[in-house]
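Lab meeting, action items carried over

1. Structure of the three-component assembly. Owner: GW. Status: complete.
Input record:
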Amino acid sequence: MRLRSWDAIAGAVVVFIILGLRIVALMLDVDPGAPTDAPFLGPSFDHWLGTDQLGRDVLVRMVESTEAFTMPGIVAVLAALLVGVPLGAGIGFWPQARLAGVARFGLTIVGAWPRLVLVVVVVAVFMVSVSDPAAWADARLYALALLVAVSFVPQLSHELSEKVLTFQREEFVEAARAHGLSDSRILLVHILWANCRELVLRQCCLLFASFLLVETSLSYLGDYGVPPPRPSWGNILSDVRSQVIHARSLARPESLHPVDLVEGLGRAVNDGAALAVLAPTVAIVVSIGGMLALARHFADTRA
Amino acid sequence: MSGVPLLSVHNLTVGVTDPLDRREVLVVDDASFNLSRGQVVALVGESGSGKTVMMRAILGITGALPGVLRGRVTAHTESGDVELAPRPPYRRRALPGLRPGWAGYVFQHPFEALDPYQTVGRQVSDSVKIARPRATPAERHDRALYWLKQVALSDPRAVATLHPHELSGGMAQRVAIAVALATEPRLLVADEPTTGLDWSVRREVLDLLARLQAEQGLTLLLITHDFSVVRHLADRVLVLYRGRLVEDGPRAAFFEPGPGEHPYSRELQARVNALEEGRPPPPSLHAPAGGERASCPYVHRCARMAVAHDELRERCYSGVPELEVFGEDHRAACFLSRP
Amino acid sequence: MRRSLSFALVVLASSAVFGAILWSVPGAAQRAAEHGDGSFVAWLISFWKGVATGDLGRSYRGVPVHEMVWRGALQSLPLISAALLLSLSSGLAVVLVLGDRLGAMGRVLRALVHMASLCPVFLLGYLGLVLFAVPPDGPWQSLAAVVILAVGDGMLSDVLLGLDSEVRRLRSRDFVQSARLRGTPLWRHYGPHLALPIAQIGASRTAWLIGGVLVLEMVLGIQGLGLIGYRAADTADLPLLVAITVFVTALVAGTSLLVDVLRVLVDPRVRKDRRSVARDGR
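Predicted assembly:
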């Protein structure tokens, strides 16, 4: 793997930052929900990113938000791998088998469902039967993770099976068989580990990015993501929304003159509400971008 | 016999630059030769020697193949000289500055050369339109049928309505030739034009090409493995070995052993003769891949080397031979050739 | 045609699976019983009978289901198709026209496009509301919605990448090179050969797009299928929910079907029988 690639660097940086923030959050003792009396402060030494509408420290909330997607995201990736890799490898290696046909059919059906629709429908319906939604937040997040994983499996299996299929016809497969590597599973190790590693890694990155997208979207929308007061980048945005829309014009320039834009941006950065919008936006864009860059890095090594 | 020059190639180097480590992988190394009007030139060499890549690079139709790294290619037309290379990376037209259809190319794989979604008639008509832009559709259609007849396809009318996947290999090959000829080019490069044709059809196609050359001064460059083609049609022979032009001379000089001949030409002919006469071909030492530019590229297979003195062999290991002139219009690149 | 059979199968199976999921929720069965449906299978049968007759029953809130689906579709479908069109055409424009020109500026532009594209749709909608004061209804809102859908959630990026690789592949083919050399019109080759890949890219993006529509409708307050479906999910409104999910699934599967139909129309190799003229023209 070429370390000179910008994509790899960008992706690695983002991953380290997220993990770092997660560790910091675990060690931190500050309560993200503790309101102070100072809503919408600008950045200061006490509050590096200012405060939100309830006076809570924005930076702390931002860092704590990583809890919402890091672990569940990893779970999603593992779940997808557990199901998708055997399926994809199996279909690719024994494409004629009856089971392969059945599996392919099942995957086509699952693959036809829009991801968010699947997630919302399933989660929503289970939530109806529950009396206190907030208490189930953790379970919900992991259910979300599993659902996103399920919706991702068709894509993963399909790509993997296509790749394995091309290797089937390669000579070294015949040679290995002739050598007496009788158990096809050993062949699978050769093919999968040696050649499909990058494809799988790429799909993992895409899946994580996808999960991040789903989690932030649903947290923003309200009921199916992370419930307030627990922070998530999505619900930070939605918390601030009404204030921002009705009471302030964020960096809305009166004119498009560059000086005015910069001025407006300067004003915005000093405004707590603006920061509460900018920070999650930047965080989301950077995180998803980083994961996609990493995915692109794993894709580029095909000649 | 040099006549009116048509195309000059100077120090052409074709290859790719590896974007990561900036190394160049050369497919054609410093080739220089000239084509004259009305000449029939055969370009020979084994598979992988770079014949196709070189000609496609010269004509600007490399596609996914390696492109021109260095060198100059000049086309000489009635209205002046046109520089064909170096040229900017991607242009719509392959040879801007020349009239469309000035050069024709018959691709190696006929089914790839034809658009599977269009009928044969349509594809030939498109070429005809280039040569005769003011013809009416009916005239174009007639002319298309004319060309299909010229390439020895019986029932051109029926063939014109077919799509390429409905043709046999030999028919597709001939259609591809018709498509290239219908633009009435000045220069036609044919890449293995006789592969897949049975001997009688091959005869007809070669006769057609010979006729066109005689009647219209069509310049032909034939990339071929088929020495009978070389024997019957070619005026000159260019020999390419692993990207280097090692011999360039008249047909007679190529076939007769003589001082200016390159040992590789000898080897090629020995193989063909052996195959034709049913003998086993002489054993070849496989040259290791990888560009050793410090010695003659043919060093590992050279029969001449085997019988040369040690001091002479030193020379072969220590430098890359350039084309030297031997006799009239005949060049070869070998340290061990003595006039 | 085999394809339409598989299409029907997919939709049927989906309805069964979705129905089973929804049914399995504790409490849902009871509510269904309250409203007059018996067992799961009976309900499933009556559902499909309803589809055939156009009467999908009533939602648990009383309004006839097909009316709600229709109303929602009227809002959502134009958005989806416009977004698909915009995405594909702008992607084509970028790949074909801009191509490798514009040098450094082009690369910056592309980087910006990719950055905008990786934003989740809800974020773009949010920024639209906050930064650009997108109005609560009217043509500007629809325009903004279409642009956001065409770009966000990675939509435009994927379209660009897919189109780029298709065009590159096409350009390297011999018959395109032949046309370049002869000077014959290139678009005659590009058009038919790109039609199918473009349709394929569009079809594969439809499912993704529907997810985006769901979110965007919530953000902007558009009364489309997404919003209605969300509310139905909220209240476990079985008939409406199943109807919407099946409709959506049918939509996605339908686009694949359309692509297969297109392939038959465009590719003569599929159209004609493989009757190669074997006699070698003597």
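2. GW to write a short summary for the group page. Key points so far: Chain B has a mean pLDDT of 82. The first strand of chain B starts at residue 5 and ends at 17.
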